[in-house]
Amino acid sequence: MINNLEAVPAQRFTKRGAVNVEVQDLIGESQxxxxxxxxxxxxxxxxxxxxxxxxxxxxxxxLKGHGILRKEKDQLALRPGDTVFIRxxxxxxxxxxRADPLVYLLLNLF
Length: 110
Hints:
The protein is mostly beta strands. The protein has a domain at about 30-85 and about 105-110. About 0% of the residues lie in helices and about 55% in strands. The chain has no helices and 9 strands. It has strands at about 10, 20-25, 35-50, 55-65, 65-70, 75-80, 85, 90-95, 100-110. Strands 1, 2, 3, 4, 5, 6, 7, 8 and 9 form a 9-stranded antiparallel sheet that branches. The protein is globular and about 35 Å long.
């Protein structure tokens, strides 16, 4: 199955604690995937995801903008082209403090 980014509507990311975040679900259960989910996140200025921790792993690829990954006790700077692996059960949050949006792909591995 092929899914085009332009055909997937952006939706407000409604997890409790998230601010100024939109998400597009590109691949998931509705496309037949039972083990992985691919999403495109856009975080506007002064936005952030919720502080999260879970049993599955993430792989992140930064497409545009600059941001911060708060992971455990670290704050890591993100820029276009960066890739990040987040292990299971590691607390993390993505944030953007700049005028340009932070845009990244996030792959959940179940």
